[in-house]
Design brief:
Layout lengths: L8 E8 L5 E8 L5 H7 L2 H4 L1 H10 L12 E3 L2 E2 L11 E4 L7 H10 L1
Parallel strand pairs: 1-5
Antiparallel strand pairs: 1-2, 3-4, 3-5
Length: about 110
């Protein structure tokens, strides 16, 4: 990997793998780095096989799909081709095990 110059951007990554395992990382990237490239540079595509498989499947998708999208920046779903800005917070979303509305209904009936 080539050295970064003084124009490097700082971005942050966050991933709550499950209720007990959260991952956070700050990363220096070149200007014009994509969301996908940052995930790769952070090592997360080798560390998390499911994320890597999802990224491979969605690499060419230009418009995030509602329930099937697993990455974003500051809680807004973004395509993998999104160009990062200084201090962006990349978030990896895990799939929900149950629909939140159903959970609330079930809880209120208890």
């Amino acid at each position: 990997m080539a050295e970064l110059n003084n124009d490097a951007l700082t971005v942050y990554l966050a991933y709550a793998e499950d209720a007990t395992r959260q991952h956070y990382k700050s990363l220096q990237v070149r200007p014009d780095t994509t969301l996908y490239e940052a995930l790769s540079q952070a090592g997360w595509l080798t560390q998390f096989a499911a994320l890597a498989a999802w990224c491979e499947e969605m690499a060419e998708v230009a418009t995030p799909m509602a329930k099937r999208w697993h990455v974003g920046v500051y809680a807004k779903k973004q395509p993998l081709s999104y160009r990062l800005q200084p201090f962006d917070r990349i978030e990896v979303y895990r799939s929900l095990s149950a629909d939140p509305m159903s959970q609330r209904k079930n809880k209120s009936r208890s």
